[in-house]
Design brief:
This protein is of the alpha/beta class. 45% of the residues lie in helices and 12% in strands.
C-alpha cells in the first residue's frame, strides 16, 4: 500500500484556512481514542479543515499527551477549556429518543441538552481564544462511505484505504518506545515470521460477548511449532490457551498479575503504572501490525485498529465476522458490532452480516 508522506500532509493541512481542534484521549481506551482521531483527520482532509490537536490531558498520558509516545505530526494547542468543552460527538436525537423509549426515562434527553449547552460554551470559548470560529471534536462526522480523492497526497481510495494510510503515517513511536520494541522482540525470541492474536477479557464483557482464546487460536489454523504473539489482558486465560495448544509457542507481554483490563482502574492508576501499560500496549500492537497472520475480534479496540489497516490481507481475519463483511462492519458503532459478533459466534459455519437496526453512523 502507498505510504503518505508526512511533509506533504503537513503542507496540505497547513494550507486550509479553517481549522478543527481535536481533543485526544477523552474517555475511551487508547486504541478507540486513536481510531476516533484518525477519523477526525479524514474528516478534515475531506472538508478542508486544518487539523490541530489538544492532548496534554489525554487519559492515556501523564501530562505530555501524544508526544509522550509518538513523534509530533501537527500543531498542538494548550488552552485548558478544551478539557471540559471539547468532546466526542454524541448520539443523534433520533438515537437518544430510542433510548428514552427503551428505558422509559428522560435521562437521555437531559444528557443531550446538557451536552448541547457545553458544546455551545466550548465554541464560544474557542472564538474568544482564537478570534475566529473553530470546529471542535463534537463537529466531526464519521463518513465510512466516502471516497477520498486528494491529488496533493496521491490519495485515491476508499475510507478504509485512506484510514490505513493516515494511521501508518502517524504511527511513529518515540525513540525510547522504538528501543523497547526492539528489546521486546529480542527477548521473546520471535522469528522473522510469526502469527498474532488478540485475546480480550476484563471489562469488555460489559459491552460484548467475550471470545475464548481457544476460538481465536483455532481461527488462526496454526501449524505445529508455530510462534504466536498474543496481546492478552488475563494471564490465567493465557495459561489455559497454552495448555490447550502445547504444540504451539505462544508468547505475550501479559504479566501474572494481569486479571483482565479494566478501563476505570487504568484511568485511576498512577503515572508510572499508566505509562508502563501504554508502552506495553503500543509495543504489542506494533508486533501485531507486523505479524504474518492475525486473528482478532470486531468488538475490541486494538483488533479494529489493526484490521482497519490490514483487512485487505487474506491472512487477517476476525473470528466473529465473515471476510466479505469485515470492511463494512469495522466502521459500525460498538453496539452493532457486538450484535454481529454474538450472532456470528452462534453460527459456526459463518455469518455474513447482521442488518443494522438504524441508519445513523457514529464514530
Amino acid at each position: 500500500m502507498k505510504q503518505l508522506n508526512l511533509s506533504d500532509w503537513k503542507e496540505l493541512n497547513n494550507s486550509f484556512p479553517r481549522r478543527l481542534i481535536y481533543h485526544a484521549g477523552i474517555d475511551c481506551g487508547f486504541t478507540v481514542e486513536l481510531n476516533y482521531m484518525v477519523n477526525a483527520m479524514l474528516y478534515c482532509l475531506a472538508n478542508g479543515y486544518q487539523f490541530q490537536l489538544y492532548s496534554e490531558d489525554a487519559n492515556f498520558g501523564t501530562g505530555k499527551g501524544w508526544t509522550e509516545y509518538f513523534a509530533p505530526f501537527c500543531e498542538e494547542v494548550h488552552e485548558a477549556f478544551h478539557h471540559k468543552y471539547n468532546l466526542h460527538r454524541p448520539p443523534t436525537w433520533r438515537r437518544a429518543m430510542k433510548n428514552v423509549v427503551k428505558t422509559r426515562s428522560l435521562s437521555f434527553v437531559f444528557w443531550k441538552l446538557k451536552f448541547l449547552l457545553k458544546s455551545l460554551v466550548g465554541h464560544w470559548l474557542a472564538f474568544r481564544a482564537y478570534g475566529e470560529y473553530v470546529r471542535l471534536s463534537q463537529d466531526v462526522a464519521h463518513e465510512p462511505d466516502k471516497h477520498y480523492h486528494i491529488p496533493a497526497l496521491g490519495l485515491n481510495g476508499s475510507y478504509t484505504e485512506a484510514y490505513a494510510m493516515l494511521a501508518r503515517m502517524i504511527w511513529q513511536p518515540q525513540p525510547e518506545v522504538q528501543q523497547q520494541m526492539a528489546d521486546t522482540k529480542r527477548r521473546l525470541l520471535l522469528p522473522q515470521v510469526y502469527s498474532g492474536v488478540h485475546i480480550r477479557g476484563g471489562d469488555k464483557a460489559q459491552e460484548a460477548r467475550l471470545i475464548t482464546g481457544r476460538q481465536i487460536i483455532e481461527a488462526l489454523h496454526p501449524q505445529e511449532g508455530d510462534s504466536i504473539f498474543a496481546l492478552a489482558d488475563n494471564y490465567q486465560q493465557l495459561e489455559i490457551v497454552r495448555s490447550e495448544f502445547p504444540q504451539l509457542r505462544i508468547v505475550s507481554l501479559c504479566q501474572p498479575e494481569d486479571q483482565g483490563y479494566s478501563h476505570k482502574a487504568f484511568c485511576t492508576s498512577g503515572p508510572l503504572e499508566k505509562k508502563t501499560a501504554i508502552v506495553r500496549l503500543i509495543v504489542s500492537i506494533d508486533l501485531l501490525l507486523h505479524a504474518s497472520k492475525f486473528v482478532g475480534s470486531i468488538t475490541t479496540g486494538p483488533s479494529v485498529f489493526i484490521m482497519k489497516q490490514r483487512c485487505a490481507e487474506p491472512s487477517v481475519v476476525a473470528v466473529d465476522c465473515s471476510r466479505d463483511a469485515l470492511e463494512s462492519v469495522l466502521s459500525l458503532p460498538i453496539d452493532h458490532r457486538a450484535a454481529i459478533s454474538a450472532k456470528s459466534l452462534l453460527r459456526p459455519s459463518g455469518y455474513a452480516f447482521l442488518a443494522v437496526l438504524d441508519d445513523e453512523a457514529l464514530i
